[in-house]
Amino acid sequence: MVAKFDLHIHSNYSDGKATPALMVEAAESQGLEAVAVTDHGPDLSVGIKRADIPRVIEDVRRAGKGLKVKVLLGFETNVVNEFGAIDIDDSVIEQIDFLTMGIHYISGATEPNEVAKVYLKSAISAIDKNQIDIFAHPFFLHGPLLPHLAPEEIGRFVRLAAERGTAMEINVKYRAPDEDFLRLCLREGVRLSVGSDAHWPEEVGKVDWALEVLERIGAKKEDLVLDSFL
Ligand SMILES: [Zn+2]
Ligand SMILES: [Zn+2]
Questions:
Q1: Where are the domains of the chain?
Q2: Close Cβ partners of 195 (under 8 Å, ≥ 6 residues apart)
Q3: pLDDT tens-digit profile of 181-215?
Q4: Exposure class string for 98-109: b at 16+ Cβ within 10 A, else e
Q5: 72 falls in which pLDDT band (50, 70, 90)?
Q6: Cα(63) to centroid of ligand 2, in Å?
Q7: Are 221 and 9 spatial neighbours (Cβ–Cβ below 8 Å)?
Q8: For residue 43, how far is its CA from the centre of ligand 1 (angstroms)?
Q9: Phi and psi at residue 227, in whole multiples of 5°?
Q10: C-alpha of residue 136 to centroid of ligand 1, in Å
Q11: How wide is the angle at C-alpha 177 spanned by C-alphas 6 and 32, nearest 5°?
Q12: Tell me, which fold does domain 5-229 have in CATH?
């Protein structure tokens, strides 16, 4: 069994319902090895305000002091267009432990097949242009998108992620991505992460489903992204 960790939670700096300190306290009481506060980037309507970024950095660093759980700081940056632009600046990235990217909206497509194509293009461009450590809820946008993509396209994407060192998240909230995709990631040397996507303290560290998935697909400690942040 791999260690319990949760690298995707939101505080009330974005759409979470509690302060970073309370979210981190919940992680401590769950006995997690590590937890990461990863608020949404400012381009999302519920995302953090740019002016608040220095404050959340300070709050999370302070919240982690004196606890057993290792407290990490990231952001869930938005991919703002299909050319891979993101909404967290380099000057902020220098001050955090890792950068997660999420695709929460895409423009100009409504049919699932089209949505999947634009989503894939956005993801490829973002990973190509930026140093993205973790891809949150990959290929889930209002539903699973992988069934709408060709195996060759998915294979090319996974090989790019391996090359660029971008890990794929197993997201407990959306129960995504599917195990075939995760097995492909393991075969190609893409590391995996675990995120509850908690917005409430009670949801922090509730990652048993992801740990079961990791066990079923035969992932080992060295397949997980955690060690590189500790
Ligand atoms: Zn997200
Ligand atoms: Zn999230």
A1: 5-229
A2: 6, 7, 8, 9, 38, 134, 136, 137, 169, 170, 171, 172, 173, 207, 210
A3: 999 999 999 999 999 999 999 999 999 999 999 99
A4: bbbbbbbebeee
A5: very high
A6: 20
A7: no
A8: 12
A9: -55, -35
A10: 6
A11: 10
A12: TIM Barrel (3.20.20)
Going from the Cα of 170 to the center of ligand 1, the distance in angstroms, rounded, reads 12
Please give the share of the chain, as a percent, with pLDDT higher than 70: 100
Q: For the beta carbon of residue 208, count every other beta carbon within 10 angstroms.
A: 11
For residue 28, pLDDT beyond 80 = yes
Task: Quote the pTM value.
Answer: 0.97
Asked if residue 120 has pLDDT above 70, the reply is yes
Model pLDDT for residues 87-102, shown as the tens digit of each residue: 999 999 999 999 999 9
* 115 Cα to the center of ligand 2, angstroms: 20
At residue 137, the pLDDT reads: 98
List Cβ neighbours of 147 (8 Å cut-off, separation of 6 or more).
none
In angstroms, the CA 87 to CA 113 distance is 26
The residue with greater pLDDT, 110 or 117, is 117
User: In this structure, what token pair is assigned to residue 209?
Assistant: 């489903």
